[in-house]
DNA sequence: AGTGAAAGAATAAAAGA
DNA sequence: TCTTTTATTCTTTCACT
């Protein structure tokens, strides 16, 4: 439950700079936003402790780590009368990268990555069994882009000097 | 086009550690994998230049940055005879976080984030117009998890001391 | 490829405005 | 809440294995 206080321009600048490179140093961030390093450090810690920033991830080539096959899996309860806690029941399956509840035919949308069609088959079986659901799977053939920055670069927002 | 040489245990360890915290210092990574800092630095640079790691992102609370509404948008060409370069045509829309081509009824699956239903309506209009497609939108009601590490923590793979 | 050491850079903590 | 200062830690480079 992140703090609901709105972000000021400096906070937004920090988040924006990190969105381009989350390994940027405090010194680099400080240059970007025009404050001292210490201030930026305090701001960043506050953003983290308020839950505005909840972690940092590398963008990893899926093939290089042996998971070239991505898919969307929509799931729906077999028995709509049963209590539904599919996200919990599936949390241990670490092939699942994301889990959203959705408005539509299905109850949830998962995004998964696996090594092979064979592994996908196995994973779908595990999902069905673990959560008592039926599934509808859509294979991703090619990823054009993903993990695009949630907050666009600050330099793109005010085309001043460029 | 990332290098296809397979990752050894050390590389995997580095990627795994970064997957938990992409802002980890080289010193921390070195501890994790049991090599010197210099070696880890050289390894990490190599992973980056080979395209195994292509960037770093913060995980940002979508509400805090004013984009509380997420949706999946499937798109299909209005005229299947036309050349199809939808991903390019849509790239400038920075509300689009991801774009995959898919096997299924539709041609592409987008994942988008916007400020409001009104903004979603506007975005869908822009997508239709820019790429000459029809769309099918599924709203995300709640996100249980996302951006889960592609590579699980090394400590979870060999439950030795814990 | 990996190590260790030395110089330079970044971070953390503290004090004051 | 920002800045400056200082101590500590991290990163970088390089000579060597």
From TrEMBL, chains A, B:
GO molecular function terms attached to this record: sequence-specific DNA binding
Alphabetical list of PROSITE patterns matching this protein: HTH_ASNC_1 (PS00519), HTH_ASNC_2 (PS50956)
Domain HTH asnC-type, chain residue ranges per copy: 7-68
GO aspect biological process, one term: response to amino acid
GO CC, one annotated term: cytosol
Record keyword 4Fe-4S present: no
InterPro entries noted in UniProt: ArsR-like_HTH, AsnC-type_HTH_dom, Dimeric_a/b-barrel, Tscrpt_reg_AsnC-like, Tscrpt_reg_AsnC/Lrp_C, Tscrpt_reg_HTH_AsnC-type_CS, WH-like_DNA-bd_sf, WH_DNA-bd_sf
Alphabetical list of Pfam families matching this protein: AsnC_trans_reg, HTH_24
Keywords recorded for this protein, A-Z: DNA-binding, Transcription, Transcription regulation
Record-given protein name: Lrp/AsnC family transcriptional regulator
Species of origin: Microbacterium protaetiae
